Amino acid sequence: MKQQKTMICGWICTMATAMVMTACVTPKNYNYLQDLQSGSVTTTPANGYIRLQPKDEISILVKSNSAELDALFNKGMTTTMSNGNAQGSQYVEGYRLDANGNVDFPQLGTIHLAGMRRSEVENYIKTRLEEEGLLKHATVTVGFRNLSYTVMGEVKDAGEYSIDKDEVTLLEALGKAGDLTVYGRRDSIVVVRNDGERHTTLMADLTRGKDLYESEAYYVHQNDLIYVKANPTKIRQSTTNGNETRSMSLWISIASILASLAGLITR
Fold it and tell me: Which of 1, 13, 119, 252 is 20 to 30 A from 174, comparing alpha carbons?
């Protein structure tokens, strides 16, 4: 009889321990880039450079050896003076691409920029200025003004964030939003890409580095919507007493097992 009690007690203890361990287990899809090891080599897509779309706004700065000629092309520029010397310049106005992807540029008239990268716009304007004899040895610099993406869902600081450079990665974008909360799904990030004509939905898995780096969603584009889904724990919490009820049931079950164990021991 004593041996039987010992076996039953052992079984009950094992069950109680298993239930506690199950309740405290760490989700396997929590850490990022789990498949990457030291020395891992991956490739990234060739879509990291922003291509201009209708309604994008950019700044265009033209510089040459002649400040007077430069002034013909630099739109809305103000210069800070100190002791008679120019200390810096700032653009008040930018160039917004119209619905057809065009801008009206001084001396050159209407030029089509949609679909171009920044470097391509710079080379195009520089070449046109030189070919038409307007400027020689000009330097053209293009900057982004109103380009942005939006982050929503289970991140610490959801909102709209500006794009001021090429090759902004999804990890950078989520980092600017304060990273995912503990309730965000790492393995199913939704990126809705708007290229002006259609919306394309892309998925990214932060837990698998190789898949992430090779994904079309790895680089962020203007007007992207990045959405972080809630994990099952957060979903249960959103129901009436969902997670609390589950936790209470677990501890009631453990308490019942322990009570049974105490009864056997004291007999």
Answer: 119
Q: What angle do CA 155, 160, 165 make, to 5 degrees?
A: 105
Helices (H) and strands (E) in the chain, counts: 7, 12
Question: Residue 188 sits in a domain of what CATH number?
Answer: 3.10.560.10
Q: What is the pLDDT of residue 160?
A: 98
For the cut 80, the answer to whether the pLDDT of residue 78 exceeds it is no
For residue 46, is it within any domain?
Answer: no
Structural domain boundaries, residue 245: 2-27+235-266
Which residue do the tokens 């309730």 mark? 183
State the first-to-last Cα distance of the chain, in angstroms, to the nearest integer. 11
Q: How confident is the model at residue 177 (pLDDT cuts 50, 70, 90)?
A: very high
Q: Specify whether the CB–CB gap between 33 and 206 falls below 8 A.
A: yes
Strands 184-194 and 148-153: unpaired
Asked if residue 51 is part of any domain, the answer here is: no
Provide the pLDDT for residue 90. Answer: 54
Residue in 70, 9, 4, 36 with CA at minimum distance from that of residue 263: 9
Domain boundary among 144, 166, 186: 144
